[in-house]
Design goal:
The chain is of the alpha/beta class. The strands form two sheets. It has a six-stranded parallel beta sheet with strand order 1-8-5-4-2-3, sandwiched between helices. The chain has a two-stranded antiparallel ribbon with strand order 6-7. The protein folds into two domains: 59-210, Rossmann fold (3-Layer(aba) Sandwich); 215-410, Dehydroquinate synthase-like - alpha domain (Dehydroquinate synthase-like, alpha domain). Helix 6 (146-159) links the parallel strand 4 (139-144) and strand 5. The chain is built from 16 helices and eight strands. The structure holds zinc ion.
Length: 411
Amino acid sequence: MLPDAVHEKAATDFNCLANRQQMQRNIMTHLYQEYDPNRRFADTTDGVAVPMLFVSPTQYIQSPGAIHRLGLFLADLVGPEARVGVLITPGRRRAVFAAVADSVGEANLTMTDATFAGESTRSEVERVTAVFREQSVNIVIGIGGGKCLDTARMAANRLGARAVTIPTTASTDAPTAAVSVLYREDGVFDRVEYSRTNPLLVVADETILAAAPPRYLVAGMGDAFSTYYEARCCMQNPAARTGRGGRPTMGALAIARQCREQLLAHGVAALQELSAGCPGVAFSQIVEANILLSGLGFESGGLAAAHAVAQGLTACADLHRKFLHGELVAVGVMAQLMLEDRMDEAAAAREFFRAVGLPTHLGELDFDPGTQAGELDEIITGSLRVPFIQAEPMPVSAELLRAALLRAGTL
Ligand SMILES: [Zn+2]
């Protein structure tokens, strides 16, 4: 070939490749933006019944030191050609990155990594996606708190890759799920985004989780304790749908019930184990309740007033800043039980929350309904806007919700 022809051929190849890559990007962009499971499952326009739907990660592994065997666990699930991208928070990088790199290396898997910048914003998701696309990553591992895991999951979604989540606190039930939250640059909630599949693997390393401040485990208990009450509400109301638009299954309800039993049986003991510096059986049971049972229970069982109120409470900037999600959910649980007039269950919930150090009403969030009436209105409006509230058996008006929130403080 003459030099010019060589150049021309190279340019054509390059353009073809660039076009192909661009096309691939367009397809993936189209796919993730278009994916709304509610359209698939909740659509009854052609007379089809709404199906029951159960979703879960492919594998959940929990043990002390599990991260040291991450590579072996992964190698069982993926082929030798897998290319792993690790997204990790700066704090966790110092503590666990070497173990992750060693373990993945021992399994002979190719690995690259990126440091999470701190917020799950569109720009951060795009940045991480670009870094991993460059390396042809097809397994994205998130190691850190909720926002880092969400960013890893959304990057995986854009790449058409599978996600692996390794939570470093047991503070929420998000690691097993296929739903992520995007925030705006100013930290305000933007929207939720659904992935097509749940994580390939969730690794709950009890050693890592026990090293987090106990407040995170307590908040996780608040998030997990709501799961049964919300799933039951959805099960009993034929009009209710899960977050993905399906009907809940009895399996999800049974898991949610077990979640509550485990919290009641082991919650206090788990905290005692932590404060004694020797996490044992009770701690292990609470990690499972907070991450696995609550995760499966909420995603396939559905949410109701407790989470609508938790989200509504974030309308007050102070509450949003000062309290963890699970702490707000605990107040939401009390409001839900008041709405449903389940006084015996409310008393039991209150006793549990008190025992582990969770708030039970607005006053315990340092919120004074008397002097903060305007903000209370915003909280109520915000809660009523969240679709989960419609799972309740009765139409919830502003007056009903206000009465429920205030009544929780009089128990
Ligand atoms: Zn939650």
